[in-house]
Amino acid sequence: MASIAMDKPGATVLLMGNEAVARGAIEAGIGVAAAYPGSPTSEVLPTIAGVAKEMNIHAEWSVNEKVSAEVAGAASFAGIRSLCIMKQNGANVAADFIVNANMTGLGEAGMVIFISDDPGGMTSNNEEDSRTITKWFDNPLLEANNAQEAKEMIKWAYEVSEAVNLIVFVRGVTRLSYTRGNVVLGELPEEKEKKAHFPDLWDMYNPTKSKFTSGPFPIFHKPLHEKLEKAREIFETSTFNRYMGPEHPEVLIITCGACTSYSIEAVEELKAGDRVGVLKLGTTWPLPEKLVAKHLATTTKVFFVEEMDPFVERSVMELAASLLPATSALTFYGKRSGHLTPYNEQSTNLVINALMDILAMTYQPRDLTYDKVAKEAVALVPSRPINMCAGCPHRATFWAIKKALKLDGRDGLVTGDIGCYSLAFAGPGFFQARTMHAMGSGAGVANGLGSLKQFGFDQPVLAVTGDSTFYHAVMPALVNGVYNNSNFILLILDNSATAMTGFQPHPGTGQLATGDPATVVDMEAICRAMGAHVELCEPFDLEHSTETLLKMIKEDSGARVIIMRHMCQLVKVKRKIPAKYKMHVDPERCLGDTCGCDRLCTRILGCPGLMWDTKAGRAAIDEVLCAGCGLCADICPAGAIIREEAI
Amino acid sequence: MGTKTLTKEPFNFIVAGVGGQGNVLLSAFVGMALVNEGFMVSVADTFGVSQRGGSVTSHIKISKEATYSSVTLEGKADVILGMEPVETLRALGEFGNPHVITIVNPRPVHPTGGVAYPDLEEVKKAIIKLSSQAKFVNATEEALKMGNPIYTNVILLGSLVGADVLPISKESMVPILEERFPGKVFDTNMKAFNKGLELIAMA
């Protein structure tokens, strides 16, 4: 589409869920948007940043989620509507601020956090359900089903936020964030002029309406619960909650978010519309209890369909318990009954399977003979392990790490982190990473291991981090290592982008979210100022990087840093930087399976640009995928992979 | 609003390929053209880590009446555009049925880490057996002839439009390409698109 800020109310455009969220916030007249990149939400902030100037919005990539929440919070305090965006785990990082912002309340202008969970872990290393933490924070929570609803819901969330003076969360899931759908555009805000002013509100008789300072007093906590009750009242009549089905359904499905469509389609597919009703909740915390109680009274069987935790399921069962004995005839189906699982992504087919059991129905998705032939044919289909891209500098880095640790011979290990290089736990990084947890945990865990000398621990410890992760969460861990004299090496895999989530700029790139130039925050200078010994390497110079690693490993004391610097291959492609080499395999020199290398190039190095030519019985270059980095020429023991300078 | 109709409600279209082949852009183009033709669509793509050389599918559900969820039900695909042979077969295994039409780029993308690629002729035979119609379009080969494999997805887009299996026309697609590829790039992409039209006419 032309522009996310197009002034064409009523026009229908195709928008990704994340883009619809951005449009909703623009229509709501936000003045500030702040986020740290995290899939499945990474596209929201860039979409806003692209029109930031024309819409008079400050859009920033913040260094981490806590700072992004604080930046958005400050805007609200000063009377400017703000949007903060994060993936599920971002809530953990931002938690401390949010809990306290709920004590102080917001300013005149609303603040909304769009948070997206990742059922099935399609873009994450965990399946955290952010709704549970939102409930723990005491924030109102909405869940959208599709792009159109996400846009409307974001807009409405500002009204709720301003009515109850709390941050409102809108929860998505990967399917919402990454599904494109028809969106009818609304009006753009009339006034682009926004005046920010931090109010001086001190009223000694009413501290909760005074300065934005929190205290551990009931005086702040009691109003928070009153605000939640007010939100519940608003939610009771929200049009985002809808019932579709017969007056007295045999089975009442209670669902929310992306599962709404799965539920409706499952009922349709089973042609069970006269037996099953669907209560779709758009407001899931606090639960609109009167509305739900009204529907519980119409049925005897309740089936909960939601992504991840039995969140709505538990709330409704708690409500049902409080309504006894009126609810004593109810039977509940969902995660507790085992009809669905609290892990993995839900789908229409999973809802169909569960409904077949609850309704004692049968369902045959396709012709049985075809089904048999199809299942047999699929036996031909090989697995396709995910990999680092052809030309990825991380592959060279982990090759050097593997070699250096082998040469050192003390069972040295790598503590991993979050980014493309997370794949180092498996084949693409030669199984080098042996831990992987949160952003920055590689360096944190390395701190701990490097402090175990008194217990006889003598294995070298290498922590890896990406450049963006370094600024996000690794800097404190490095300070800790220098201060406590922990023995580890931090390798910063600096590829000049937040690659995994879509090449967003960060403080080291010299570029802002809007594309404007920024001050480069020099990671090398930071590390030196912290007191660490710092070395620089070019990962594709395998000899030098292996030697440097070995030398640093032998130092065996204190926190040291190696910056492995080479631009992400995909960024090079985007910037039209041509390949350095043209690669080919010399058929005379490649000895195939008689070599004794056991297919070191295709089986171990495993670059997608290499393939095994089964017919010829030797390695070959896939000209479609090869990026011309030249790494394979360095590892072939027969010298059969040739690199020529590309013209 | 277009005059095109649907043979089925909803109509399920799948693009199957390997991360990096350009399926996201292709499915977005198809989705935009369908919206311009007046349809309700849901387009789901694979993002994040699976984009790195993994198996990726885009699902498009098309309707005249309602916004559906995006992911195709088991055994319910109507058309599969296979950007890669084994990925086409993988999609047929899960979403195929006796009525499904497939359009396939027969150029293999080899899995990494020592995983062997099956015999290509066997794979093609299985695709034909599991499709009511299977058409093969040498998109990668043609793109390489044009000087860059990057044109593979636009060639396939041309073949998809030319096959007339979805309610979209060349007329609705060209302005979308024009907007996405400004200036000189548009000419080469139109060349690729027309090549796709030509190839499917011969397939």
Describe the structure in your own words:
The complex is a heterodimer of chains A (647) and B (203). With 647 residues, chain A is of the alpha/beta class. Chain A has four domains: 12-189 and 209-236, Thiamin diphosphate (ThDP)-binding fold, Pyr/PP domains (Rossmann fold), CATH 3.40.50.970; 242-359, Rossmann fold; 393-574, Thiamin diphosphate (ThDP)-binding fold, Pyr/PP domains (Rossmann fold); 581-645, Alpha-Beta Plaits, CATH 3.30.70. Chain A is 35% helix and 18% strand. In chain A, a hairpin with a 4-residue loop joins strand 22 (610-613) and strand 23 (618-621). The longest helix of chain A is centred in the middle third of the chain and has 19 residues, at 218-236. Chain B is an alpha/beta fold and 203 residues long. Chain B has a single domain, classed as Pyruvate-ferredoxin Oxidoreductase, domain 3 (3-Layer(aba) Sandwich), CATH 3.40.920. Chain B has a six-stranded mixed beta sheet with strand order 2-3-1-4-5-6, sandwiched between helices. In chain B, strand 4, helix 2 (85-95) and strand 5 (101-104) form a beta-alpha-beta unit. Chain B is globular. Chain B starts with 10 loop residues before the first strand and ends with a helix. The mean pLDDT of chain B is 93. Classes of the chains: A alpha/beta (647), B alpha/beta (203). Chains A and B meet through strand 1, strand 8, helix 9, helix 12 and helix 13 of A and helix 1, strand 2, helix 2 and helix 3 of B.
